[in-house]
């Protein structure tokens, strides 16, 4: 069984020998994690990355940045509720586990970073990168990389890319990069296994994968330090850090509820449709009376959204508390949101059904997915062979467009492909579209 004494660590990635926490400092080590993330360039770029809907201009919809901030807020509440429960059960808990009061801050920081590795165009961007290697021009590189490395490329995963962004020593950035604490890094890893073990639905920790081959040794170092339960060595698989369940729950709560709110703003769902879905989730007999006192539909949905999130936080928190021993053993084989009690579980399933039917298949959402395939695939078609071979005036000009921080001194094919993926996956939707149009000759850059 995993132990909180080891699972909570303020040791910092890349700065392990420099940890010297000062109790007189205004911020804890985990609050520093949060601040480092929120002031970082990769986090700011989330502002122009699609969450679900293409950014329509005058009508506000959530992007990856606003989503991440909301997830962090919910995650902090989940962590604090768990800590408050532990404190009521054991008044000496802070003496026994000095870092236990920081769980809310750890979860909040991990929530802030949970989408950091997602490329432009949401999950369509991930699929487009994978498609380039499985069915596009990238297929010809299969014989130049190992089987395990090929699994990374053909199943490009934003979760693994987040770990890479947070730990990889990019040129000029210093070895520690973000230098986050080990516990925050582990709390991000929803699927702590390598790609060849991922995409197996039997276990929640192998539904996808959590680190590339290039970061495998680093993640193993984190897992060993924190005492994560190891399932196998080859392929490398661990069970989840317990706080992953809270990070995942915060994400599930936010996107399920907020997507309904955005769909109403864009007139994809009527007020009556959203009201029916959220009233069933709230299960509060007083809510219809409160709604009757409000005239504005957006304000009504705001109230329903707030109440729904509160209900789900309470249900997920209670479940995490009740299942703590099973979770510490690594044997809780579901997300918290999938195991909340009735009637909330059925209400969430109906929200998920309607979301797939009417939101995620809405014309503008599908259009952005198709555009993502074309744009991301088109960029890879240009930059991957250019960087791998760089044998002409044209390819040298293309390589000059790749920021120096991504350029690697390694000469193997896998590392050089990762250089291009680091560059392309970090782009915002708008930058990717503009660069695609320019290098394909569809538009020309302005000279100012």
Automatic annotation (TrEMBL):
Signal peptide: none
Species assigned in the record: Dyadobacter fermentans (strain ATCC 700827 / DSM 18053 / CIP 107007 / KCTC 52180 / NS114)
Protein name, entry field: Deoxyguanosinetriphosphate triphosphohydrolase
Any one Pfam family match given in the protein's UniProt record, by short name: HD_assoc
E.C. number(s) listed in UniProt: 3.1.5.1
Domain HD/PDEase: 60-265
Main enzyme class: hydrolase
InterPro entries, sorted: dGTP_triP_hydro_central_sf, dGTP_triphosphohydrolase_C, dGTPase, dGTPase-like, HD/PDEase_dom, HD_domain, PHydrolase_assoc_dom
One Gene Ontology molecular-function label: dGTPase activity
Record key words, sorted: Hydrolase
One BP term from GO: dGTP catabolic process
């Amino acid at each position: 069984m995993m132990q909180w004494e080891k699972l909570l660590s303020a040791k910092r990635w890349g700065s392990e020998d420099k940890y010297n926490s000062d109790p007189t400092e205004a911020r804890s080590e985990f609050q520093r994690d949060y601040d480092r993330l929120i002031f970082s360039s990769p986090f700011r770029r989330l502002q122009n990355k699609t969450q679900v809907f293409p950014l329509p201009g005058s009508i506000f919809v959530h992007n990856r940045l606003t989503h991440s901030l909301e997830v962090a807020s919910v995650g902090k509440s989940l962590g604090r509720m768990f800590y408050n429960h532990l404190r009521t059960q054991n008044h000496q808990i802070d003496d026994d586990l000095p870092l236990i009061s920081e769980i809310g801050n750890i979860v909040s920081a991990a929530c802030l970073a949970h989408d950091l590795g997602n490329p432009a165009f949401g999950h369509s961007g991930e699929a487009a990168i994978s498609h380039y290697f499985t069915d596009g021009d990238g297929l010809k590189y299969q014989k130049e990389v190992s089987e395990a490395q090929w699994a990374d490329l053909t199943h490009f995963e934003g979760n693994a890319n987040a770990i890479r962004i947070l730990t990889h020593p990019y040129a000029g950035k210093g070895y520690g990069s973000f230098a986050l604490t080990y516990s925050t890094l582990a709390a991000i890893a929803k699927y702590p296994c390598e790609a060849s073990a991922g995409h197996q639905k039997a276990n929640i920790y192998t539904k996808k994968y959590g680190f590339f081959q290039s970061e495998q040794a680093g993640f193993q170092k984190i897992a060993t330090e924190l005492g994560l339960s190891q399932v196998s060595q080859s392929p490398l698989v661990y069970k989840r850090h317990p706080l992953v369940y809270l990070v995942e729950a915060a994400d599930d709560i936010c996107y399920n509820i907020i997507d309904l709110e955005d769909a109403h703003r864009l007139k994809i769902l009527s007020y009556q449709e959203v009201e029916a879905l959220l009233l069933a989730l709230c299960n509060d007999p007083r809510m219809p009376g409160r709604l009757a006192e409000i005239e504005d539909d957006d304000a009504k949905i705001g109230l329903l959204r707030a109440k729904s999130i509160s209900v789900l936080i309470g249900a997920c928190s209670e479940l995490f508390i009740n299942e703590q021993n099973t979770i510490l053993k690594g044997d809780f084989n579901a997300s918290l949101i999938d195991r909340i009690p009735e009637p909330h579980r059925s209400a969430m399933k109906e929200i998920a059904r309607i979301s797939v039917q009417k939101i995620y298949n809405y014309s503008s959402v599908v259009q952005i997915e198709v555009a993502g395939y074309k744009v991301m695939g088109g960029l890879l078609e240009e930059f991957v062979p250019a960087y791998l071979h760089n044998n002409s005036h044209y390819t040298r000009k293309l390589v000059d467009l790749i920021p120096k921080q991504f350029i690697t001194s390694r000469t193997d094919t896998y590392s050089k492909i990762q250089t291009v993926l680091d560059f392309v996956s970090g782009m915002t939707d708008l930058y990717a579209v503009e660069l695609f149009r320019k290098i394909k000759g569809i538009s020309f850059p302005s000279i100012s």
